[in-house]
UniProtKB/TrEMBL annotation:
Keywords: 2Fe-2S, Iron, Iron-sulfur, Metal-binding, Oxidoreductase
Highest rank taxon of the organism: Bacteria
Protein name: Aerobic-type carbon monoxide dehydrogenase, small subunit CoxS/CutS-like protein
Entries under Pfam families matching the protein: Fer2, Fer2_2
Domain 2Fe-2S ferredoxin-type: 11-94
Lineage: Bacteria, Bacillati, Bacillota, Clostridia, Eubacteriales
InterPro entries noted in UniProt: 2Fe-2S-bd, 2Fe-2S-bd_dom_sf, 2Fe-2S_ferredoxin-like_sf, 2Fe-2S_ferredoxin-type, 2Fe2S_fd_BS, Beta-grasp_dom_sf, Diverse_Oxidoreductases
Single GO molecular function: oxidoreductase activity
């Protein structure tokens, strides 16, 4: 009698975050990722990437926005298991790690005082980055539309719009 092959007791999920490959064992153990864990939780708790914020935890505020395969997504609304094989970019993944320079869009936010407490800023920047990747020269109205899902309680969105438009003029998606 030929033995029946055993299924592995744990599934493994792999994804690339900020250019680095990561594998996670799915399970409920202390060093495993629960199948019910969101991408936001995995980024923050397993990878220590705390730039991705969890605010409303219901997909309403945009603070958890990251890029998945270049598109803006709400990481609190995605299970980590749904991200198998995907390329994830967080706010920590912008800029040039070799030179230590920040992304031109981040610099534009600094130059235009387009942040206050900084809680919502990473999500806003990631939404703007996705827009600039898809549409390198958006109109102000297109920027407003792309950022419509990002909410900030302590800043004027005019500063944010000015920062994004200034980055557009300088070729801010390089």
């Amino acid at each position: 009698m030929v033995p029946t092959p055993q299924k592995p007791s744990h599934s493994i999920i792999t994804l690339t975050v900020n250019g680095e490959h990561h594998s996670f064992i799915l399970g409920e153990g202390p060093h495993e990722v629960s199948p019910s864990q969101t991408l936001a939780q995995t980024l923050r708790e397993r990878l220590g990437l705390t730039g991705t914020k969890i605010s409303c935890d219901h997909g309403a505020c945009g603070s958890c926005t990251v890029l998945m395969d270049g598109k803006a997504v709400l990481s609190c609304m995605l299970l980590t298991v749904e991200c198998e094989g995907k390329e994830i970019t967080t706010i920590e993944g912008l800029g040039d790690p070799a030179t230590g320079t920040i992304d031109p869009l981040q610099q534009s936010f600094i130059d235009h005082t387009a942040f206050q407490c900084g809680f919502c800023t990473p999500g806003i920047i990631m939404s703007a980055k996705a827009l600039l990747t898809e549409t390198p020269s958006p109109t102000r109205n297109e920027v407003q539309e792309a950022l419509a899902g990002n909410f900030c309680r302590c800043n004027s969105h005019y500063h944010v719009l000015d920062a994004v438009m200034a980055a557009v003029k300088r070729g801010g998606n390089q």
